[in-house]
Amino acid sequence: MMENHKYAVVDIETTGHSSSSGDRIIQLAIVFINNYKVVHTFSTFINPEKSIPLFIQDLTKIKNEDVVNAPLFEEVGSEILDMLQDHIFVAHNIHFDLTFLQSELKRVGLPKLICKTMDTVEFTKLMFPNLYSYKLQDIASELQIDLQMAHRADDDALATAYLLLKCIEQLSHLPLRTIELLHKRSFHLKSNLSLLFFEVLSTKRLKYEPNEYPMYRKIPLKQMEEEKDIGPINRSYPLEKLSKLKLFQNGFPLFEERPAQFELMDTIHFTLQEKKEIVCEAETGIGKTLGYLLPAAIYAMETQKPVIISTYTTHLIDQLVQEEIPKLDEVLGVKTRVAKLKGMHHYIDLYRFWQHLQLEDESYDETFTIMQILVWLTLTDEGDLTELNVSGGGQLFVEKIRRAVPFKSEESEVVDFYERAIQKSGNCNIIVTNHAMILADQDREFRLLAKGCATIIDEAHQFIHASMSRKERIFSYTNWKYILGQFGTLDTEQLLYKLSIIHIPLPLRIRLEKEFVGIVNIFDETVSYIINSVQHAKNRSKNTKRTILLDDLHLNESLFRKVALSIQTFILSAKSIIHSYSMKEEAVAPIILNEWEYWIRELEIKVAEWDEIFLQEESIEAKWLEIDTRSIPGSLTIIKRPLNYQNDIKHALNPLRSAGAVIWTSGTLSVPSNRHFITSQLGLHEKIEICSFKTSADYYNGAELLIIEDMPEIQHVSQSHYIESVAEAIVQTVLVTEGRCFVLFTSQDMLRKTVDLIQDTKLLDDYMLFAQGMSSGSRMRLLKSFQRFSKSVLFGTNSFWEGVDVPGDALSVIIMVRLPFSSPDDPIFKKRAELLTMNGQNPFTAYSLPEAVLRFRQGFGRLIRSSSDKGVFIVLDRRIETKSYGRDFLQAIPNIPVKKVSLENMVLELENWYTK
């Protein structure tokens, strides 16, 4: 029986983040747990003796009137301290709650709370390592924990208490071997979770019955159940409209017919049957994904071969499998057999992981990530490392255990996830993969996608970016220094020093050290040479962040050749010494030698990239350098991106064309002035039909476009004056609409300066401002944060314009600061413009304008995501009305009301619009 610890689960709401800066507690709640049951709760408002900021009121729904008659902290502090004594203090992000509470106790003259602690953020990350987010509200939703009102101390404390019990339950269900491995490392955690690991381990050992685990790893893995072949499905494609309606209404009783969706389905059905190639541009709102999934699944079941469906990112793969395929199953009334197939590097290499388990952990991040993976291996079906949610530091460890080379263990008990994914893809109806996988398949001796009978490429316009990224090579100074730093010298505790442990003769160690020091010296000399060339470049800029085409620096290749030669010499020497060493005498030798093999392989990858970037010339490529003068040489990055991607796409698609139909689809695949703008970049013949499927005329009834006609023209005023005008327009819009606003920029520099100015004015202090490149977190995390607050504004650049879906009231306004033309200084644009000019074409009409119009369409597409949405698209760039090309932008979006208004009248227009 587990020891009966008593837990006090605490949550506080405050006026801000810093007690020392005068912030105060406004609500405190405690949930007491005894015998693993909630036995008592305590909650009180607390008078902070100051006004509660409006954004805190918005977040917590606690108003000034709620706390005006509440006790002061000094009146309840002693009682709270007494209640918490002799309990383990539990909180979700304990660093905040406990630290703030301790500061308040000190402020009113009470003693410090002395207690054991447990952080449910740390515990949840360990027990549920594959959750997308570890915010309490998101966890509660995912784990079905009741949370009536997030950001209220009483509800949050109760949800945290039930989360603690969920984590304990999850821990107790883990295999004994996993718990043993976790307990061994639990003493390095930040809170006292080792107490729980010991309790559960002791109980588990009393009940333990030996089980056989895969021996060579002794890591418990989830038991895999092979899917049974359910044979052909007696389901034919519903050609008649009534048949389609009946099918959809069986799956969704409240289904509303969308004619364009049925037209898309028919087009794809006939294309599959005729084994043709087609382009389908399907506007937002027609139900594109289900529109292609249904005919594809039926065709696959008829042919008994899988249809390949490719999308751009692994996130979209997971979204398709987890959200869209279940809808398909509801409509068809059968379970579609689906296989996800990603590149080898997405999967864990169990042998590498087992090797690292034998070594001493390098840091807290590494310890924590190893513990997360041990739990995850008992949960995962696929071994896909993207399922894991690890810290930035943990990501470094994940990179060490990725599958890097084809490997098949001779021990049949070992589950190899990558091989299993390949096997599964041969016995399914639909293979879901990504563009990178299709492009990489052309290089494989045995193609993994050879069994497909047809191919559907969703987010087709992104296939171009996937091809460019596949051939892209990046030199990062910090990444190189990290890898070189692993080797150290003979008197450090890095790789060279470890050779003495396995008795490599001293002369050989000295030789290796000398060769390695030579690498470091010539590498540093070369980096200094590059930076010196940048500092003497003619196009010096006042900006701290600089982008320079490498051709403009006229670098001499000789130093770069010396770097490559010195590394290759060192690699040959190291391999020779390692391979000639007998491993039979030292137990530790295999571990150390495997470490050496891993980092030598990393060095081989790096020197190959170095060779491609600095010593190989492509026929058509953009090669440029990026640096921040405030951080030299740490910020130095050099990028090479070949631009002859049409041949790459052609070679990847030709085998798929031979196998059956190829269908390209996306929401934006054309622009009015250049219907073949995207398809020509994809290398598609002009004879391939482009079909457009549009939403019903009333879908955009809730949309309106405003052009602000008294904005200054950027060429006629100073940058500071222009940014002031942009900031004023944003502030006025946000104050009228009360947030829920995207602001889209074409320049990160202008975004930063505008946000800084708005923050300096304090006019939007009551709003949550999230800015790409300024606020911490990924794009998806910023979007989640934006959605969480009603009074919020999100500032983003081009990368926010695609794939962002914010349905409903979460987004009501998009402000486009500038028409989304590429910067003339963008290295890829400069190279394209140069090539077009050489071919006798006008770079503006042939590339710059259609690219900007396409982005404009994509920006607008973020606003209305359902027929019930309502929103305003505001353009601050007067060129849309003053330049002849302005009509190209307006013709590219649906027929909605367009009004030209002054900034002053815009405010009135918005007020009228949102009160309709």
UniProtKB/TrEMBL annotation:
* Residue ranges of the motif DEAH box: 458-461
Domain of life, source organism: Bacteria
Q: What is its EC number?
A: 3.1.-.-
Coiled-coil region = none
What's the encoding gene here?
dinG
Q: What class of enzyme is it?
A: hydrolase
Q: Where is the Helicase C-terminal domain?
A: 729-880
Q: Which CDD domains match?
A: DEDDh
Keyword Transmembrane appears in the UniProt entry: no
Q: What is this protein called?
A: 3'-5' exonuclease DinG
Q: What does this protein do?
A: 3'-5' exonuclease.
Query: Which amino acids does the record list as binding ATP?
Result: 282-289
Instruction: Provide a GO biological process annotation.
Output: DNA replication
Question: Which family would the database say this protein is a member of?
Answer: Belongs to the helicase family. DinG subfamily. Type 2 sub-subfamily.
GO MF: 3'-5' exonuclease activity; 5'-3' DNA helicase activity; ATP binding; ATP hydrolysis activity; DNA binding; DNA-directed DNA polymerase activity
The organism's lineage is: Bacteria, Bacillati, Bacillota, Bacilli, Bacillales
